[in-house]
Amino acid sequence: MPPTAPIAISCGEPAGVGPEVAAKAWAALGRDMPMLWIGDPRHLPEGTSFEAITDPAEAAAVCTRALPVLARDFGPPLRPGHPNPAHAPGVVAAIAEAVALVQSGACSALCTAPIHKAALIDGADFAYPGHTEFLAALAGDVPVVMMLASTVLRVVPATIHIPLSAVPTALTEQLLSETITITHAALRRDFGLSDPRIAVAGLNPHAGEDGKMGHEDRDLIAPLVERFAAEGMTIFGPMSADTMFHPAARARYDAAICMYHDQALIPIKTVDFAGGVNVTLGLPFIRTSPDHGTAFDIAGQGIADPTSMMAALDMASGMVAARAGS
């Protein structure tokens, strides 16, 4: 059942494919799913059917015939594929406004289009590594976790954008414990799973072979998994990562906790490249995003695939329903 309050879509980097995939997602879903777009309507693809609104409450009625837009003036004209730092303040403000609308209840969830960090730094002194950290700050510096999810696999990297050489040091008991706890709570609250099954990957080949290929699996990961299991959580590991992601293995768990970025993202991008969704767990509001970047190389050509944006909106709608029913 779609949410009654609209899902807010922040525009993301105007020179990327964000405006295009938002317009295409509305064309596919808008008649059944209330949504609104926050940004400069001049950045939408030529021919997009849109209607400026002043109140999110107008979105549901408008959405059946046009993309509802909370129109904001970003200043200079757009050149697809070429980010303009002058647009950065508008991009940041659109995200913050969308968060405020969701927190107030005027919108039901937030779906963010991809941003371009360099342009935000140059044009708005953006001080965050990305969306996730900025949203956590807007929510009051709450601890958050990144999940990549699709209909066939959910993965959570415990460490994200750090060198592989830094992963063993970064993997602390506190970090892993927090990651598992947030993931388990989100699977219950946002995905409607009363008893989520969590698989935990090992760090080293063959999950360390009992210390013969590294000690982290035996000394850190295994005791932590045993502790959570003793407390009643359905959790197992550490598992050898090379045997975790074939279909029969995936059927045994609802989410996989992985130790580093590529250990999590390679499997999901292999099994469902177009349908993956980036979800921020731990926020007091719902946030999803397509699992792709700005794609400057194809921006403005009308060929961007909206599948991931559509999946992000669908997942946000499902999460709204799960929270309403919990």
Radius of gyration over C-alpha positions, nearest whole angstrom: 20 Å
CATH architectural label of the largest domain: 3-Layer(aba) Sandwich
This entry's quaternary arrangement is single chain
Class inferred from helices and paired strands: alpha/beta
Order of helices and strands: EHEEHEHEHHEEHHEHEHEHEEH
Let me know the CATH homologous superfamily of the largest domain. Answer: Isopropylmalate Dehydrogenase
Gross geometry: globular
Determine the number of helices (DSSP H or I, runs of at least 4 residues): 11
**How confident is the prediction overall: mean pLDDT?**
95
Q: What fraction of the residues are assigned to beta strands by DSSP?
A: 15-25%
- CATH class annotation of the largest domain: Alpha Beta
Domain unit count: 2
List unreliable stretches of 5+ residues: none
How many beta-strand segments?
12
Descriptive overview:
The chain is α/β, with parallel strands linked by helices and 326 residues long. It has 2 domains: 1-143 and 283-326, Isopropylmalate Dehydrogenase (3-Layer(aba) Sandwich); 152-271, Isopropylmalate Dehydrogenase (3-Layer(aba) Sandwich). It has 11 helices and 12 strands. It has helices at residues 18-29, 59-62, 88-104, 117-124, 131-138, 167-170, 173-189, 216-230, 247-250, 261-271, 307-325; strands spanning 7-10, 35-39, 50-52, 67-71, 109-112, 145-149, 154-157, 197-201, 234-239, 255-258, 277-281, 287-290. It comes from Flavimaricola marinus. This is 4-hydroxythreonine-4-phosphate dehydrogenase. Substrate binds at residues 131-132, 269, 278, 287.
